Amino acid sequence: MLVSGFMVPFKDVLKCEASSTVKEVLNLMMDWQVSSLVIVLEDKPTGIITKTDMCWCYHNGISLDTQIGDVMPWTAGMKTIQATAGKDDAAKFFEKHSLHHALVVDANDKVVGLISALDIAKEVAKDARAWPYNRHEDGKAHPIETH
User: Fold this and answer.
1) Confidence band (pLDDT; 50, 70, 90) for 123?
2) Would you give the DSSP letter of residue 99?
């Protein structure tokens, strides 16, 4: 299965502005039960804020009124993965870069979605449940061909 088949489409990704406060981000994460938000500046993704980042803010005594833009490492560390990558390649990419979230881009480097390590794990689990069938890129299970 390709990343494009199980990513969260960018239009459905929860976003916040760099001017959002730590408290606003925490409330969004809790209200929507998500582990990350994409930070946008003039509708352009500039970073990903995660629950781990929120723990860092708490541990370091960052005020709830602090703007996210003042505490986030920006685009230099933001990783992207191609929508055409397979789930196994995505897993290797996440492992190599020690990621839990990444933006998904198309062939023109336009952001088209968001993927998490949990999304990849769910896809792997679907393959395990499909046995003795193989799931193809269309997401459907087909009998394993034996020769």
Assistant:
1) confident
2) -
